[in-house]
Queue: 4 jobs
Job 1
Amino acid sequence: MPQLTEELIRKRSEHNEGVISDLEEIALHQQELEKIENLEACCRHIKILLLQNNIIPKMEGLNKLKELEYLNLALNNISMIEGIEGCESLNKLDMTVNFVGVEELEESIYNLKANIMLADLYLSGNPCEDWSGFREYTVAHLPQLKQLDGKLILPNERIKARQNLPRLQQDLEVAVQASIAKKAAEAGIPVSEGAYTKESRNEMYLEMAAQKEEKDKNERRRMGTEPKEPRQIPGIYNARGDIRQCNEGKYDFNIDDTTDPTKIIFELGVPKYLETGALDVDVNPMYVRCVVKEKVTQLKLPGEVKPDACKVQRSRTTGHLRIEMPLVEPGRVRGPAARQEPELQPLQAERPPAPGPAKAAAKAAVSVQGIYKDPRRVSKSSDKPKALLREVKTTRGGTSGRPRRGGEDDDDDDDEIPPLDPRT
């Protein structure tokens, strides 16, 4: 259920630009409130207070409101008028449709005697109204009243009420005993469905509060203003049990363990104008962890450091974070040794590969397809008919019987082979 907090008071004081120190009027009706609180501390100058249509069971937290003139507590679960003796300026009190019975009527009227400025009182709709002497009894005990339940109190009515006061006091005692006996008789009888009781009102207002909350939640979801759940900051170790290495903020960083062999220097490029209070730095012998606006940057260190001797600074020009971490054993850095680079050799000219036997045979072979079909390629000598289909080959050694001279082409034509047709 909602509570009467300072935030709610500021929200309901929009007409005063959210300023509550000098607030004079506030409407807190239909807020499903169960308790009156924070008004004496926040609104000492309040004059008009509207708290109707809630489920407030007790009048409290109002006694210090010296300037309060109008208090509306209609449609609540109040059984007794109390806690307003210090409201010196109270002029109008509305207690319509509450649960003030004849048992509490005498004490309730007595508590109103201190409010000498009270001129208008509303008690209609309360169980005490069922007693026939209710109006006379109230008028007789509260001479400052000018009207009761919206009806003016005439002088003759006041005089008559004062005369009948002893009898009214006896009648009230009888009515109280009858009411107590009636409640005792009905103690074991279940209440009929739809009866107007405190329990039924509480149940109804709880249901209304749930519906209102669901409606507000759907509206926030539709407008995209629903508050998000707080982000869970990752832990130090990952699922495998190793030290987590991450950079959720995407900040530039540099870790230097070579410039000074006695320490490790870690630099993180946080925004220049970021408040230093938004940084959370944790240096461990094995890792360094920086939380910047719920974004974790955590790195595993290459060597064991001394956390108690570390130095954390921020640059005045760039705002970057600098952490100097002295090594426990200077010169000793964990991790695999550096890979040795192969020695570079000068470039050398590549030698052409020697032709293989298959390539030489392919180069020496000459196609003989279609030779016998071309009359120009058919030998006219009749004494050599078998030479037409003889395999034609060329040799690099030149024509038999003629020595090869330097500079001559190895692919000289054979005299016995007819010339090839240029069209093929």
Job 2
Amino acid sequence: MTERKRDQNQLVINYLYLRKTVGWIGTLLPVVLIAGNALFFTTTLPDSMSSYYYTHMRNVFVGSLCALGVFLIAYAGYDDWDRWITNIAGFGTLGVAFCATKPTVCGAQARTCVAPAVRTLSTEQNVVGTIHLVFAAIAFIALGVMALRFAKLPPSEELRPHGFGGWLRAALGLPQRGQDDPRKPADKRDGAIFRTCGIGILLCVVLAILGNFLPQSFKNDVPVLFIFEALAVFAFGVSWFVKGQTLAPTAARLATRMQHGVAAAALAAEDVQPAS
């Protein structure tokens, strides 16, 4: 094996490990925040993932986001679109980590206000909290678009994007009109997973925004924002899991066992057939 070939193989392995690491952080972060806060500190569930900044799990939350941000910025992708989108997602994630969300504001009728909750927000808390929301929206939208782009078809020389519609389809990783899908069945299955994750992330962003219009009494009982944030982060992790081929060995073993099971069942059926 030549030195150049060995370096290329090592680069592929490093990219797979990078994708797997991003997938693990994304899928485990919501679970770790809930479990760590409940087991070691308090059973009170913050109303959003960002609110864990004000709990004892702050270092885990900020450290995980910093790792994700650095990994996303380091990920080069396949073209300029990938690089721009992952860079935007990475810087957005770092912004979420370093700009704290607004702390909980105690109700006007509350007799006591236990820290980190506050009676009123300071100007700094308002400004930084608003910046946090902007970074969060940018990061989630970019992560959703990135998941969609994972499903993009190989570039076609015959069908280049034309006009705004073609440009938008190329940016989102959608096939151009009339473009055939030459991928293998396994790649098509992965593409369906990527699109499901991407649409799920973007849908969670919309639902999280709409959740602000729910009655406060309902939001006090159900952590709506946390649920949608956790689902979006989990979908993001799954998309990178699949891209990093983390589950490929398990899926291959399951497929092999299913094939063996079907073959064994067919042989058993032939054995029990009466002789003619």
Job 3
Amino acid sequence: MSALVPSIYAYVGHRAEEGSEGLIMGIYNIPTAAGIAIGNLIGGFSLSRLGLDLTIILAALTLVIAVALTAVMWMALRGRGVSLSRQST
């Protein structure tokens, strides 16, 4: 995982349009950091209180919500004219 994270940051930065790299990196970093911090706490709590089966269901529901929020943010950016890809020069 530690080798993958720098590659992801490089890819996200490369794919962002020139001038919007900070916005795109912020959009990527906020949910990533929050997910790492909060996800571990919620996962441990739910495993100890609810058991493995309900914890897996909770994780699956969280994934669905994350995908939906990503789609909403992507559509909002497209509506503002921000492209998520950079043309190769």
Job 4
Amino acid sequence: MKPGKASCSPISCYKPLAMTKFCSPRPARAALLTLALGLSGCSLFSGSSADSGDNPQTGTQLPPGALYQKGVTEMQSGDYDKAVKDFVNVEETYPYSTWSTHAELLSGYAEYKQMDYDDAITALNRFIQLHPQNDEAAYAYYLKALCYFEQIEDVQRDQTTTYEAISALDDVITRYPDSSYAHDARIKLRLANNRLAGHDMAIARFYEEQHLYTGAISRYQDVVTNFQTTTFAPEAMERLVECYLDIGLPDAAVRTASVLGYNYPGSSWYETAYGKLKAHGLVTAANQAQAGSGAVAAVPTPKSSPWYWPF
């Protein structure tokens, strides 16, 4: 077989099935592995390659399949920077070839692997814009979401990237709701929302410590209203009880504690809130008897949803 001539068509060589059928938390890694297996049966070029895209035997530009394979080989060996250069070379030199389409996607993947997230997002956006109906568009959207997700900062820092990750993850879920990418995106979306809730809680706790109750209450209410399914919701409600007691709003404190008990009856946060109400003389003998029997004291009747809110 002549150097540069593939033993099968570009389309049949390129069959990264894991890009469309993946259930593991690490789709990107599995997709690359399957891609490598799919390409292993295609003899694209013989001999060694120089760092450039030139044919080592003739000094001329390698054909698209050979140049693409060179990038794949370098990517498999962990030399992502060289792989990106080869994939970009395929795009620029052979822009109308099938190899170019695949190279655009793997260029974004290689940038992602070396944590050049901005460049990866740029490459993936270009792929999505040029090939919106491509079979691997779902993977491109998912990989773009990963680029944002893996840049999420600690709760003490700015959460702009978290909002971008949530938007990108929502995009995957909305566009490809039945895909395995959407399944993983939903998991990561819960984690991202938990991070936003944690950010609000960190700010609210600071405000409360400084006796800035208006700001603290606003942040705690935001967690209860917008992040009900996160792990921070019961704590936010208990903290609201504290704030209401500190500013002299016992009725609001009792109502909030009741909602907390209704939604999280076995929570340690409810026990803490109940203890504080008791310390302020806001628990009647009947309430104590209910609590002692395992029932929840002073539970309001839910209206349209179990989340009853006093304000």
